[in-house]
Model the fold of this input.
Amino acid sequence: MEIAALIVVDTNSGDSGNGSAAAHLQSPQVPIALWEIFDKSVLQRSIERLQQSGISNVSVFLDKSLPDEMLPSDTAPVTWARHSSDALWREAETAFSHFADNGVDAVLAIRLGAYTELDISDLLRFHLDQRPHVTMACDASGPLDFIAINSGRRNDAAYLMRSRLQRTRLPAAHYVTDAYTNRLSNSKDFRALVQDGFLGRCGIRPPGKEIKPGVWVDEHARIHRSARVLAPAYIGAGARVRAAAVVTRCSSVEHHAEIDCGTVVEDATILPHTYVGAGLDVAHVVLGHGRLSHVIRNVDVEIADPRLVGTRTRSAPLRTLSTAASLAAYLPMQLFRGLFAPSHREQPSQLPSAVGELSPALNPPAQALRAPAPSPSSDQFPADFAVARRYGDQ
Amino acid sequence: MEISSRPVVVKHMPERINLKQAKEFLREVQPFLKSDRPQIVFDFGNVRQMDAAGVDMLLHCMGEAMKRDGDVKLASLSPHAAVILEMTRTDRLFEVYETSSDAVRSFSGFLPNAMREHPQWGTPASSPSVGGQVPVEPAVQSGDGATAPGEIAA
Done:
């Protein structure tokens, strides 16, 4: 029995950041299925789960407008197909026909999407035993966009693909699962998945070495000794946490991200290759790809200032070079500033007159001005008489 | 992960933590903070009043412990202490546990279910209501309060 899988990462479904709230932004929308959780995206995890269930024939359909670096690099036996968002489902339909022509018995069509830990082998067993045309995986909240189709049912497949797996031509069998599922419809769901991973509520676990209870650090990560990383937290491979930074409350700093000095990362995910500037307070957000998705305010904000949030280059030699260049340039730049930069210290416009003026502190108090002058015959000072001593013996 | 076999010191905080009490408390915990890789739990169950000196003392203890590769954790936060720590945003600098014993065990292994939960963690916060009046004293005001003797748990 040969089974193939089609995964469509649909960018038009509103599953990027905070959906319609982010529609006006300039930077490319990266689907949540491509955001990394503990070093792997949901797409990578879905491919792995399929392969673990014995499905090696996997085709992934992605929007071609996504930058190349968003794609996972280490999922070898997978066919990647990149098309415009309008053509994605049409190409998936073509791929279904191709599978059917090449002797595949059933095709698993998946729209990412949701993260689910359903038992794929059990779903396929159910589908083959019940012999329906189409089997839809569902949980208590509804369908999971996870559908098994007999390869002979091309019309059913075409109808499904054209409706983006939303409608079936004929009534479908329902495979109901109670496995862990997160629909990843916005950044809040994404953060919930990260927290569930930390707190052991789902199958995702932080990789790397647990350097102290609840703190996982991956290879080549660097944490300054004055930085504070509180459990549960994850610092990804090659990530850097600089002096006096704080990473706390289920925060995840993904691989090659950098947290600059004094910044607090609380209940947040810093996506790979993201630089977070110094002295910031980053709380309840998913930060990366030039955007900040706020979980509580349900809004996406584009940050163009690289001093606040930037992107670290993906090339390791370039990263090393830029670090060395910034180190080498630091001292000459400070010398140049010291010698040539204009001083910001304000000088009084007319120095001689300013020096000659009496300080306001030495003026007689208002009460003293209002009080009647003491008569020369008086032998004692009045109670409100004030004397100001200037310098030394004056 | 290295399983900790070093002792964990549990200190019960006094009912009032003002400048005088903080100094006195700091004097008591100083020997533990000076030890190698100190592991200390502060039990806030009795705390009814806490001022800036108390917060400062906590940060000082945290800094001292971090210098020696140790850690300070908080347990049994009373509503009064929780409010002050949240207001000063100090709570996010510490791991906070429901009970002292959980905090002690957390030095040996990660206990996700024992941590004090936050509203953003998807479950209702277990911290008590913060609607009551909480006195915030100036740092210079003195007061009385008893410091319970520290206990050492293996």
Remarks:
- The beta strands of chain B are 8-12, 16-17, 39-43, 49-50, 71-75, 96-97, 151-153.
- The domain at 7-107 of chain B is CATH 3.30.750.24 (Transcription Regulator spoIIAA).
- Confidence is low (pLDDT under 50) at residues 123-154 of chain B.
